[in-house]
Amino acid sequence: MKFIAGNWKMNGSRSLLDDMVKDLEAVDTENKIILCVPFTMLGKTSDKIAFGAQDVSAQAKGAFTGEISAGMLADANAKYVIIGHSERRQYHGETNNIVRNKATQALANGLIPIICVGETMEEKQAGKTMAVIESGVRESVPSDVNTDIIIAYEPRWAIGAGLTPTDVEIADAHALIAKTLEDMGLAGTPVLYGASVKGSNAADIMSIPNVDGVLVGGASLKSDDFIPIITSVK
Ligand code: 13P
To answer: Which atom of ligand 1 is nearest to the CA of 215?
Structure first.
């Protein structure tokens, strides 16, 4: 079983989601399908598909205009929430510290956080990839986790760019993340790969050791693109 998670980012509509859910419910698969959609599209339930959000407040509740709490996400049938996506880190200044606080809120409300880590092109070129990934995991994951979490490795330079790291680069990153999680007492935590995943590369990427699934951006918006990713692995 692999995790196949879609991140719709700021795309889609409620009617597109209705159509997508119908299409996905007809797919014969053992894989775990998760759709992380904009807040306004949450509220749906499905026997086959789990829903998630793409961000959550670091605060529990109160006078934080415009924020959405983890409790509200759970109330809207979300089971997962992406936290610390590179676009949140890039455009909203989210640090590992903020990500950890958000993940703490998610866990306190029974949500499974999908915590994203990954290096920028600048960090890659400076030879800092492994250091950024390791500190990303150590600093973004709350210290007292005793339930499920998911990590997503998303090389920031490859997102939406049609670029992917080599299989060896993905293998090295995932091995480091798995080892770091083991050191933290979180052995067995699923680690997903994300950035430019499509039907034609999904099976190859998911055959790499320690890759437990994928987090898919652009190719999760159309059934014709997303279903081949879901069915590319058993
Ligand atoms: P793309 O699949 O569009 O590269 O996006 C990846 C991503 O950011 C998923 O969270």
So the answer is: 9
Give this prediction's pTM.
0.98
Q: How far apart are CA 29 and CA 11, in angstroms?
A: 25
Location of structure tokens 């055959």: 207
**Per-residue pLDDT tens digits of the chain, which is 234 residues long:** 999 999 999 999 999 999 999 999 999 999 999 999 999 999 999 999 999 999 999 999 999 999 999 999 999 999 999 999 999 999 999 999 999 999 999 999 999 999 999 999 999 999 999 999 999 999 999 998 888 999 999 999 999 888 889 999 999 999 999 999 999 999 999 999 999 999 999 999 999 999 999 999 999 999 999 999 999 998
Phi, psi for residue 166 in degrees, rounded to 5: -70, 165
In total, how many domains does the chain have?
A: 1
Residue 85 among the catalytic residues: yes
User: Residue 218: CB within 6 Å of ligand 1?
Assistant: yes
Phi and psi at residue 4, in whole multiples of 5°? -120, 100
94 lines ligand 1 (CB under 6 A): no
The parent domain of residue 51 ranges over 3-230
Q: What CATH number corresponds to the domain at position 46?
A: 3.20.20.70
